[in-house]
Amino acid sequence: MGNKQTSCHHNYFSRFLPEEQAEIDGLFAAITGGLEMMSRGKNRRSFPVPISLEMLKTYLGDALPEKMIVRLYEGMRNIDLTETSMGPTEYVTKEQFVILMSELLKGNAGEKSNAILKMLHVPLVNVNASHLREFTEDLITSVVHVLDYRNELKGWNVKKSQDFTSGVKALAIQLLSELKQGSPVKEIDTDSLYCNLSAIEEWLIKVPQISTFLNVIIRRGFLVLHSHAELASFIPECKDGKEFMSLFNIPAIVYINSFLPTKLQHTWKLIFSSQIHGYNFAKLCGNIVDKGPCLLVVKDRDGYVFGGFSSHSWAVKGQFQGDSRSFLFTISPSIAVYTYSGYNDHYMYLNHGQQTIPNGLGMGGQFDYFGLWIDHDFGKGHSKANPRCSTYNSPQLSAKEYFELDTLEVWAVGDFVTEKSPAKKTVLDTNTEVHCLLEMVGKSRHSEGLRDPCQDKET
After folding, report:
1. Rounded to the nearest 5 degrees, what angle is found at the Cα of 21, between the Cα atoms of 97 and 75?
2. How do residues 382-425 score in pLDDT, each as one tens digit?
3. For residue 126, how far is the Cα from the chain centroid?
4. How much is the pTM?
5. Phi then psi for 192, rounded to 5 degrees?
């Protein structure tokens, strides 16, 4: 039996590179206080000192919430090395420690599912969606907690963002929605979907964020293998908004950032806020035009928070712009992202100062029927979906179809584009209505061909 345990230990241990194995060895020794042996009277055991829950709590300290420390401990001690079903012991052996680390950091979806089940500490026949929801809430909370504790929130301030607790619950519900759709579960009621191992495995495949979150709490909680590249753009750096009370909460930032093109995930820069710059549509246009891809987020007077990602620089013109990377999203009361439906190319629209064409900012849908519209008077907008926005397949984002604007902010994402020097004007430049009408019918001005080409830096 001892040989079987040792063989099992080496199989899991071999997944780590030699330098990683040394880190895992050192971590186990550090948790157990550096002791190599335990003494009981005159007898000495010939294997490493096992880990107790108190040892784990002492080592991790305040790096992780206590509830997550207990879950990790349960995940370790519920690993059955003997296959005798005698039940878990009070202490965690090095073999159990290595197996859990290997499954969470190196394992496939099936192994991670098995580890999560042990961390739930609920008999498999009793596991339902409510247990997974509580686990997911603890996981999200632990991710933000450990990044804050390690000073790795990259300028974001938990206290300077919207309600953290509601953000955690909303994101957990969103992630769990994938479990309820198409997974082999037996539906009992809204929060009591009985799950088997294959259901959880399928959920992990559909929701890669869970595996990433597990990586974060292990690597940053234990400070082990922490140079791994997959965490580099997990949360973007916050520029020019560190002391600003954003409409985004930290869970929403992490989730929405994961939908951005990879090259745009590393930095968010605040370029407009109605709280700072005032309720002025002309000022909004001046701050967002030619600034590269942006995230725009709105809060209506009923407290709903929603917005959209514009894949290209905004430009004031009388036609739709952008591409299929654009999307709409909600943050409160629920978190969700709505991507391109394939129905039409009405991704983005911005116009100002015209009499014959709608003036305002819109995303998705069509004139007078946008998925998201901010009117040029800056006091009102609409979100129409009957039942869905044609471009993004999104529902009504605001509390009411026609909403009153409370707050609006815009973040440039990726490499911030510096403002271009103004081009030399022609006679037609003085009549912007004519320019917009020409663009709407697909005509270009011959005078533009005489200018130096000036293309947006699209990412």
Report:
1. 15
2. 999 988 999 999 999 999 999 999 999 999 999 876 655 444 44
3. 30
4. 0.84
5. -130, 60
